[in-house]
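In the lab's daily routine, each protein ends up as an entry in a very long ledger. A line of letters takes care of the sequence, but it says nothing directly about the fold. The three-dimensional part falls to structure tokens, numbers that each stand for a local backbone shape. The outcome of that step, for a single protein, is printed below.
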Amino acid sequence: MKTWKCTVCGYTMQGEEPPDVCPVCGAEKSFFKEAIEEVGPQAESAEKKEKPVSTADNEQTSSSQRQWKCTICGYIHTGDAPPATCPVCGADSSFFIEVGVEQEASPAQKTEDAATSGSEPSPAAPRFGVVGELVMRLHLHPISVHIPNGVLPIAMVFLVLAMIFGYGALEKASFFNMIVVLLSMPAVAGTGFIAWQRKYRGAKTPLFITKLVCAAVVAVVATLMVFWRIIDTDITLSGGIGSWIYLGLGGLGLAAAGIAGHLGGKLVFDK
């Protein structure tokens, strides 16, 4: 059975022919390519057919085409053995399964693999009921996380301009945007936790731990900035050391949001 990969979103499937439309991104059939490419040109292939190949050469060619799939993030590795660490999510080699073996997997293994695609959680993963189903089906975490990732940079731009030019309207705009960031964090954290448990089985790899830490940093920074501004309305335009600390807090939150966004993109696209 052949393995086909969508060159747009990275979705993989097994079958004699690629699907007419990618079920993930909607790309047409022409955007699919066979995951296992031919070893050499057609002329070389024809020559090999005429000339007998030793068993050792056959084993070497077969092993070089072996593919291993990370059951946490879906990354595909080609080689004699799985990598020691997944280059995408950081899972160790024990989380890899061979693609060829996966085709004949047991029902339990198929259920586990389905969990990595986001369709169904593995038996050990919390389901979270209807909420969990909606979070995964509607992709609520990517939707919610774009709010702080988009609004926080704008808040910081307004804040810097307000401090440079002493313009109070921009400072207020920055404050109101920071409130939006703070209000969005519960949804970001909640949907992110559900997606982490259901799709990635709560794997405690460096990537996911870093994302959790970054989310906590953004939430704490937004809370401090909003309530500090409520208590001291002149903190940002006072020109004292407090205003610089306030600006530094915003920079810390912006950096954490950027790192989390980068890791999220790595998890989605580096496969």
